[in-house]
Design brief:
Radius of gyration: 21 Å
Largest sheet: 5 strands, mixed
CATH class of the largest domain: Alpha Beta
Bound molecules: alpha-D-galactopyranose
CATH architecture of the largest domain: 2-Layer Sandwich
Helix content: 40-55%
Shape: globular
Number of helices: 11
Structural class: alpha+beta
């Protein structure tokens, strides 16, 4: 990744003029509320100090020219009048998708020169793509004076991903990248698109442990989970699982395939845990935080079936060190990726030692540990 000055220098030497603006959007870690966003439910993420930076300058022609500094300075350009999917440079489809959706809402925009760099680990479940989309939207909004709101930007980013890139993600990642708060986590209501921030206790650290398990089948498994949730909502006759109760689920159990029952059980209980975790953090009840994060992990493992053995191992090891002084669970879409731990700062070293001592010998893989801070979103 380039630093800000290096990015601006690279822009000048590539485009022959200085960048008019440099923007940033963060990645995110989800503390709790997994696979609830596309069920109209609650999520509780924080924006993190890893993100995407873009140096940009608007153009008078209709071309968008984007350069990915972290992919060997790859350049991709396209005309606003004919935005097609690019089968050769997959990263460029985020730019193409975002610009296409933006253009539908703001037909008067012109071209743009963009130079991109970032440090969100890719494929780790920390939303490198949402951070990219939101940074692009910030750049266009600033350059063309569009005054996009955070919610508008999040919806455009999600639309680009759903309708252009081809991933049916929910709204969580884009919303928190846009609207996260410094030192805060945010409780998002993914149906109403409203949110409440809460300040994270000063003595707790957000620690992310990247299992480095190569994520396979993520998109197909993700889409299958979505379909199973929709099937359950259909049987329960609710618009989304957000509106279902455990009583309703039990009543309809005989009509539901066992897997579909389990998926709905996860979503309904996860929504309740997410609200409970927000209240527990506000009240400083860390033992409760510990309990709901542990239950969330078990639910993802047994009901939603999205964890892998390496991730389960990390969670067990860390939970043993932390006890009820903090919480730990898998975070993100699943099938690899990261574990998030919310732990007393004084336990960070002990948790790191435990991971370093046992993870490699048990799994043959090396974990990466990031001690993070919660940052402001790009539209906050
Ligand atoms: C991915 C998606 C989000 C959300 C999570 C699971 O990160 O992009 O919308 O569904 O998975 O909680």
């Amino acid at each position: 990744m380039l630093n800000r000055q290096e990015l601006q220098d690279a822009f000048l030497s590539h485009f022959g003029q200085p960048a008019a603006l440099t923007v940033h959007a963060p990645g995110r870690v989800n503390l709790i509320g997994e696979h609830t966003d596309y069920n109209g439910g609650f999520v509780f993420p924080a924006a993190i100090n890893f993100g995407t930076w873009i140096a940009a300058c608007k153009r008078s022609d209709n071309q968008v020219v984007a350069v990915a500094m972290d992919i060997n300075g790859n350049e991709n350009s396209f005309n606003l009048d004919d935005i097609q999917f690019d089968h050769n440079q997959s990263w460029a489809n985020y730019v193409r998708g975002v610009v296409k959706m933006l253009q539908q809402a703001y037909p008067d925009i012109n071209g743009m020169s963009l130079m991109i760099t970032g440090n969100v680990p890719q494929g780790a479940g920390l939303s490198s793509s949402a951070s990219f989309e939101i940074a692009l939207l910030r750049a266009f909004s600033d350059a063309y004076g569009l005054s996009l709101t955070g919610v508008e930007a999040a919806l455009l980013g999600q639309k680009a991903e759903n309708d252009f890139v081809g991933c049916s993600c929910g709204i969580m990642d884009q919303l928190v990248s846009a609207l996260g708060g410094e030192d805060q986590a945010m409780l998002l209501d993914c149906e109403a698109l409203t949110y409440r921030h809460t300040t994270l206790p000063d003595d707790l650290a957000i620690v992310i442990i990247n299992s480095n398990v190569k994520r396979g089948l993520v998109d197909s498994e993700y889409n299958i989970r979505r379909e199973q949730c929709e099937e359950a909502a259909g049987v329960l006759q609710v618009t989304s699982l957000r509106h279902a109760t455990l009583e309703q689920l039990e009543q309809h159990k005989p009509e539901l395939k066992n897997t579909v029952y389990q998926r709905a059980h996860h979503v309904i209980t996860e929504n309740a845990r997410t609200l409970a975790m927000f209240d527990a953090l506000e009240a400083g009840d860390i033992a409760k935080v510990s309990q709901v994060m542990a239950e969330s992990h078990v639910s993802m493992r047994d009901d939603f079936e999205i964890t892998v053995p390496q991730i389960d191992f990390l969670v067990e090891q860390i939970a043993q060190v932390v006890g009820d002084k903090g919480g730990v669970r898998m975070t993100g879409g699943g099938f690899g990726g990261c574990v998030v731990a919310l732990i007393p700062k004084k336990l960070v070293e002990k948790v790191s030692d435990t991971v370093n001592n046992f993870y490699h010998s048990h799994t043959g893989l090396t974990a990466a540990i990031y001690v993070c801070s919660a940052e402001r979103g790009a539209f906050a």
